[in-house]
Design brief:
Layout: H1 13-23, H2 30-37, H3 41-53, E1 57-62, E2 72-76, E3 82-88, E4 92-99, E5 104-111, H4 114-118, H5 125-136, E6 144-151, E7 154-155, E8 161-165, E9 170-174, H6 176-179, E10 186-190, H7 191-203, E11 209-214, E12 218-224, E13 227-229, H8 260-263, H9 265-272, H10 276-284, H11 288-312, E14 315-319, H12 330-339, E15 350-352, H13 359-375
Parallel strand pairs: 3-6, 6-10, 11-14, 14-15
Antiparallel strand pairs: 1-2, 3-4, 4-5, 7-8, 8-9, 11-12, 12-13
Helix pairs in contact: 1-2, 1-3, 7-13, 10-11, 11-12
């Protein structure tokens, strides 16, 4: 079935070849590529010649042989093109440069008061920060496909405005005031939506999943058969604002009892004034206050997960920088989920992201890579 995708007549032959090599998990001989794409060897060689001349495909060594001539392998050139992703939060920018296989070439966290910068007329602070990042890491601008930017808030469907970003205190901000002066193609997306796209892209399966982003702001995205479901008003996946405790803790949105204030890392910072590293180290050392906070966060997270599962009946994948600390406690979280849902025999549908680090800035820059692969 998988090979059928590379035989589609609607796709140009060179794109079929490139996509097959890009998605391949194992050694690719020329004969294997020709068979998978349903083309003759002369047609393969003609297109490979062009792809290699453009620096997009290369030879990749030889297959082990049990006798006779060894087959020469093929692979894409990962750094033929590059993308940059920027994840904006209240006080920082996280910037990543990556190649076509999403391999990290450079990463940096930069203090950045976005709200303050937006209040300045004609501010070019973002582009200056971007240029410094590219210069410091010797990023080849001639290979740069574009710059992706994520915002923890609701973005207009035409990507021209930020309707509301509660954790950043932004409302009805025109995007042009933020990206002014960036001399590359720019794509702006909600942070959790971009992360959900990255999760599905790396998994490589057209599956249903709900992605729950656990960062200072808590959000999410819904993926149906690998494609995003945005909703009628592009507000799907706002899981952080599911009410789980009526009249409970105050949320950044102004309401009380949302999921976000119970499971956001902001809660840890507000209670103890420590970093996540310090907090989880304290949990490991059996600090009673830290343990009580963690278990309470996990219990409330389980309530949110069960609500999502009841509505969508699919995998719930936890991502964002808080999720990077949750592996040792995943079994406890699953027990809480199981105990709160009468229709489950197990809670294996609760999973951690397969992108272990920096998924939000990776998701920011993914759009350009995905478009490039589709258009070769």
């Amino acid at each position: 079935m998988q090979n059928d995708a590379y035989r589609q007549a609607a796709l140009p032959v060179r794109n079929r070849i490139y996509r097959y090599l890009y998605e391949a998990k194992d050694f690719c001989s020329r004969q294997a590529v020709a068979n998978a794409c349903g083309i003759s060897m002369p047609t393969l060689y003609q297109n490979l010649s062009d792809l290699m001349a453009e620096g997009l495909v290369r030879s990749s060594g030889e297959e082990q042989s049990t006798g006779g001539r060894k087959a020469q392998g093929l692979d894409i050139v990962p750094d033929a093109r590059l993308s940059v992703g920027i994840a904006a939060s209240e006080h920082h920018l996280r910037l990543i440069a990556m190649d076509l296989r999403l391999q990290e070439l450079a990463y940096r966290v930069v203090p950045f008061a976005l709200v303050e910068e937006l209040s300045k007329p004609n501010s070019t602070a973002l582009v200056r920060t971007l240029d410094a990042f590219l210069d410091e890491n010797n990023i080849d601008r001639s290979k740069l496909l574009g710059v992706g930017l994520t915002i923890p808030g609701i973005i207009s469907s035409d990507r021209t405005a930020i309707f509301n970003a509660p954790t950043m205190n932004l409302k009805n901000v025109q995007m042009e005031t933020l990206i002014r002066g960036i001399p590359y193609p720019v794509y702006v997306e909600n942070d959790a939506t971009a992360s959900g796209h990255a999760e599905c892209f790396v998994r490589g399966e057209k599956e249903n999943l709900a992605y729950l982003s656990l960062e200072y702001g808590v959000g999410g995205s819904v993926m149906i058969a690998g494609e995003p479901y945005s909703g009628d008003d592009v507000k799907s996946g706002e899981f952080g604002h599911i009410c789980i405790e009526p009249g409970g803790l105050l949320c950044t949105c102004g309401k009380h009892g949302c999921l976000e204030p119970y499971i956001s890392p902001r809660r840890i910072d507000a209670a103890f004034g420590v970093s996540l590293d310090e907090f989880f180290r304290g949990v490991e050392e059996h600090n009673a206050d830290y343990e009580a906070m963690l278990y309470d966060m996990l219990r409330h997270l389980a309530i949110g997960i069960n609500n999502i599962r009841m509505v969508l009946d699919c995998k719930v994948v936890l991502g964002g920088f808080l999720s990077e600390y949750l592996q040792p406690y995943l079994h406890i979280l699953r027990q809480y989920v199981l105990s709160g849902n009468p229709f489950l025999s197990d809670a294996d549908f609760v999973q951690l992201s397969v992108v272990p680090r920096h998924i939000t800035p990776i998701g920011a820059g993914l759009s350009f890579i995905r478009d490039f692969v589709a258009g070769v």
